[in-house]
Write a structure and sequence with these properties.
Elements (H helix, E strand, L loop, with lengths): L1 E9 L3 H10 L6 E4 L16 E5 H9 L3 H5 L3 E3 L1 E6 L5 E4 L10 E5 H14 L3 E4 L2 E9 L2 E8 L2 E12 L6 H5 L4 E17 L6 E7 L2 E7 L5 E8 L3 H6 L2 H12 L6 E4 L3 E10 L3 E2 L2 E3 L5 E2 L7 H18 L8 H30 L3 H16 L1 H11 L19
Parallel strand pairs: 1-2, 1-11, 2-8, 5-13, 11-19
Antiparallel strand pairs: 3-7, 4-7, 5-6, 9-10, 10-11, 12-15, 12-16, 12-17, 13-14, 14-15, 17-20, 18-19
Helix pairs in contact: 1-4, 1-8, 2-8, 8-9, 10-11
Bound molecules: flavin-adenine dinucleotide.
């Protein structure tokens, strides 16, 4: 069987699913191919992670019409405390210094998946092909042809534009031999929910350590999302601890800012790598989200960066709505626009991870100087807060709270 469409999005995870929703009003015939059912326990994108979505991302999601569904289960981040392990001093980021009430919100990735699949079901011009996997791609003759495999058998799908949002191990990126820059941090993030004895009051904590951050994010009710990055060889032992031992270890690392940790949820582990594609566009192809740039979770930047990519791609296609979505002019415009933000966000997350992992006195001196400068200088703090909120470089209309213009 063979089908055609205007835009095929491979991977309906956080990035691909969001893009489909942003593009829905453009009226293109869109197909989303996703390997794992949106609400399945094994869904790799919509899992138990608590996602910190910055101010810019929440605005983008609002412009896409997704925020209304997410808001009821979202928790505002009203203060951020940043510390360095076993060193004095801390930096407190307060949205009031920016004239705002919150830096952003925390949403569970699984909840995000429910909202995305609900909205995709309602879009008449979007067909979700799931579960189905892309197993081949051929570009040429003014179209990109995908081979799909599913329980219903093999078929092909020809599209004017294909968006590869198939994650850090992207089949499409590998199949097309698009080169990548990679760095294995030798760190693994162990995540779970914890319930502290004191209310979190919207406070987020990030303690930077040589093996990555120990972060506690405010979550629904009394719960908090814990992201504990450790040396990869120490992760299996941490995963195997019983809850009481795990909580005692977590408490020892975190301190008493939220009292004691009373309860822990299910733990999951994520080995941490930087994977950056050296090209984010090819003829009739855009590479998006983790497929283009999977980064360290320090500072919770990954999906926030991908959402800015989504907002820009949607704006460029909206300004040309009805035209050829795979037109190389549009794809180059997208790539050019996104370079500076992608570069600086990736450089920041990679740089900070390595600076805190570095054992030298020089690195320790730089860290102390940076902490002191941010603690003492409101101007620097405002700059850091503005970056944390996601407003970098040329901001897309959705992030400014303006609607896309559909011609
Ligand atoms: C511990 C941790 C904490 C994080 N916390 C935050 C945070 O607080 N804030 C933030 O902004 N970011 C955070 N991130 C980053 C965030 O998880 C990623 O940016 C996000 O998952 C990228 O989404 P994606 O859709 O590009 O890729 P993925 O989430 O990997 O999704 C890819 C999708 O493609 C599908 N797929 C794969 N191959 C195929 C195929 N051949 N055919 C069809 N479908 C396919 C998969 O089933 C999946 O659904 C965190 C990351 C980690 C590891």
């Amino acid at each position: 069987m063979s089908q055609t469409c205007d835009i095929a999005i491979v991977g309906g995870g956080l990035a691909g699913g969001s893009l489909a929703i942003a593009l829905a009003p453009l009226g293109y015939d869109i197909k989303v191919i996703e390997a794992v059912a949106f609400k399945a326990a094994s869904q790799p994108s919509y899992d138990d992670r608590t996602l910190a979505l910055n101010h810019c991302s929440c605005r983008i999601l609002s412009g896409m019409g997704l925020w209304d569904t997410l808001a009821a289960d979202a928790t505002a981040i009203q203060k951020i405390f940043v510390t360095e392990l076993d060193r004095p001093g801390r930096v407190v980021l307060d949205p009031a210094e920016m004239g705002l009430h919150e830096f952003g919100h925390v949403v569970e990735a699984r909840r995000f998946g429910v909202a995305v699949s609900g909205q995709l079901e309602q879009a008449e011009n979007i067909e979700v092909i799931c579960p189905a996997s892309v197993t081949g791609i051929h570009i040429g003759g003014g179209q990109t042809v995908l081979s799909l495999a599913s329980d219903a058998g093999a078929r092909t799908l020809a599209a004017r534009l294909v968006v590869a949002a198939d994650g850090a191990n992207s089949f499409i990126r590998k199949h097309l031999q698009i080169p990548v820059a990679t760095r294995d941090y030798g760190q693994t993030a162990v995540i779970c929910n914890v319930t502290p004895s004191l209310p979190h009051q919207g406070q987020a904590f990030e303690c930077l350590t040589p093996t990555g951050p120990f972060a506690v994010l405010p979550h629904q009710g009394k719960r908090c999302g814990l992201v504990w990055s450790v040396a990869s060889e120490a992760a299996p032992a941490l995963m195997e601890l019983d809850d009481a031992m795990f909580l005692a270890r977590a408490e020892r690392r975190f301190g008493t800012a939220l009292g004691t940790f009373l309860k822990a949820g299910k733990r999951s582990a994520y080995p941490l790598m930087l994977v950056r594609a050296r090209q984010d566009i090819r003829e009739r192809l855009v590479i998006l989200g983790n497929a283009a740039h999977a980064i360290h979770p320090v500072g919770a930047q990954g999906f926030n960066l991908a959402l800015r990519d989504v907002a820009v791609l949607a704006e460029i296609l909206a300004d040309d709505a009805g035209g050829d979505p795979g037109d190389s002019r549009l794809l180059h415009k997208y790539s050019h626009w996104r370079q500076a933000d992608q570069h600086s966000t990736i450089a920041w997350s990679d740089g900070i991870t390595r600076l805190f992992a570095h054992p030298s006195m020089l690195a320790a001196g730089l860290r102390t100087a940076a902490f002191m400068a941010h603690a003492l200088l409101p101007g620097l703090r405002r700059q850091a807060a503005s970056k944390a909120m996601g407003y970098r470089g040329r901001v897309p209309r959705l992030a400014l709270g303006e609607p896309l213009r559909y011609q």
